[in-house]
Structures are given as structure tokens and as C-alpha cells.
Amino acid sequence: MVRVDKEMKNERMLEVLIVVLIIPLVSLLAGYFISKDIVEPNISKTNDSDNFEEMVVKGIDLFEVVLGSYSDFETAKYQDDLMKMKGVYSFVSKDSDKYLLIGGIFLDREQAALFSSSLKSQGISSEVYVKKGPSIKIAYDKKLTSEMDVFTSKLQDFQQIFDYMSALSYKASNDKLEKQELEELKRKVDSFKNSKEDFEKKEVTILIQKTIEIVDKITNDIKKIEISAALEDGNTFSLLQESLWQSCEEYNTFLKTIVMQNQ
């Protein structure tokens, strides 16, 4: 009897222990997991990605009127010299493992196609190739949205300068440029340079500085173009082409450098 009583007493103590210690512990654990699975997903968590936006900055796409493609520079340069002897503007550009003999570049596909047709009427065959400009992505804090809108507008003005130069270049290939047309180019360039903004984001500041450098060079080129147009010396088209090509190449090369640095 004594042994049974002891066993019963031990069982009762075990039951008390379960009630006092284990059940509250289980309740606490259950409450934790319930709050974790049900309550937490409804709480707005702070996430960096929620505070940032991303914009894509595109380079300049070019429509190249290609007169020939060669495996070595010497052959391409020889063909270039022959074109110049015929009075046809051309230059050699390396593209991957080939050397292209280019007769003109434009930012508009139709301009390039019409120019190619014009060359065909002179007995010069050509094809229009598209050379895509590079693109970079810039992540920015949503607090800088207004600043990035100004930056986007600035890049659009920059692009418009090239678009206008392309249109003038096409016209100069078969017609005389009017003085007011070059005055409009100067106005666009001056407006871009005189519009000064301060940007907080470093990448934006660097890009804008590069565009200003390029536009400064275009300003110097315009002086030569104006003289050529006034004299009607036949060099206006080639001067516009050289300025347009060098400017686009400098900008696209700069963007490629940024891409490589971020890889």
C-alpha cells in the first residue's frame, strides 16, 4: 500500500509539473509562431529596394551608311583614298574584327536610307547598318526623383542637338544650308551650356560634365561649319559628319567605360 501511495503521489507531482511548467511554455511557443507567421507579414517592413528607383541611360544609336567591309586596315584605307579621289566623303572605322568604310552616319533611319539611295544614283553601292549605343542603369533614392527628372530632361536636350546635326548633315549632302539653320544649332548648343543645374548624385554629375565637354567641342566645330557654309566650299557635309561622329563616339565610349568599371 505504501508503494502504491508513493506512485500515486509521484504521478500527481508530475501532473502538477506539467501544468505549471510545460503548458505555459507550449503556449508561449505557439504564440511566437502564430505572431511570426500571421502578424509579421502584415507589418510594413523597411526594405532598401522599396526606397529606390532605377533608370536606364541610353547611348546614341547610329545608322551607318557602309560602303565596304574589309578584314585589314590597309585595304580599307586604300578604298577610302579612292573615294576621296572621287570627291566622296568617307572614313574608316574598326568594328570588332573588321574595318568598315563609312560614307555617312545619321541618327534617323530614313535619312540614312535616302543618303544611301543618293550614293547609288552616283554608282556607289552601300548598305545601312545600325550601331547600337550602350546603356547603363542608375539606381537612385526616391527622394531624388525631381532631380532625376531634371537629369532626364537634360539628356533629352543633349540628344536633340545630335538629332538636329544629323538633319543638317543630310541636307548639306545635297543642298546649301541656310544661315538661320546654323543659328538654330548654335541656339540649341548655347541653351544646353547655359542651363546649369547642381545634382546630388555622383554618377549624374559625372555624366552631365561629360555632355558639357562634348557640347563645348561642338561649339568650336560650328565656327568652322559656318565659314564653310558661307564660302560654299563643299566641305560643310564632311565637317558636320566629323563633328557628329566624334561627339557620338566620345559619349558612347564614355558610357562603355562606366559599364566596364561596374562589371
Strand order of the largest sheet: 3-4-2-5
How many DSSP H or I helices?
7
* Share of residues in helices: 55-70%
- Strand/helix succession: HEEHEEHEEHHHH
Structural class: alpha+beta
Instruction: Please state the CA-atom Rg, rounded to the nearest Å.
Output: 34 Å
What is the number of independent domains? Answer: 1
Gross morphology: globular
- Overall mean confidence score, pLDDT: 85
Largest sheet: 4 strands, antiparallel
Structure characterization notes:
- This protein has helices spanning 2-39, 73-85, 109-121, 145-172, 179-194, 202-231, 236-261, and strands at 52-58, 62-70, 91-95, 98-106, 127-131, 135-141.
- The chain is α+β, with helices and mostly antiparallel strands.
- It has one domain.
- The protein has a 4-stranded antiparallel sheet with strand order 3-4-2-5.
- Helix 4 (145-172) runs parallel beside helix 6 (202-231), helix 4 (145-172) runs antiparallel to helix 7 (236-261) and helix 6 (202-231) packs antiparallel against helix 7.
- The longest helix has 38 residues, at 2-39.
- The radius of gyration is 34 Å and the shape is globular.
- 21% of the residues are buried.
- Mean pLDDT is 85; it is low at 1-9, 16-20 and 32-47.
List the helices and strands and how they pair.
Blueprint: H1 2-39, E1 52-58, E2 62-70, H2 73-85, E3 91-95, E4 98-106, H3 109-121, E5 127-131, E6 135-141, H4 145-172, H5 179-194, H6 202-231, H7 236-261
Antiparallel strand pairs: 1-6, 2-4, 2-5, 3-4
Helix pairs in contact: 4-5, 4-6, 4-7, 5-6, 6-7
Protein name: SPOR domain-containing protein
GO molecular function, one term: peptidoglycan binding
Keywords: Coiled coil, Membrane, Transmembrane, Transmembrane helix
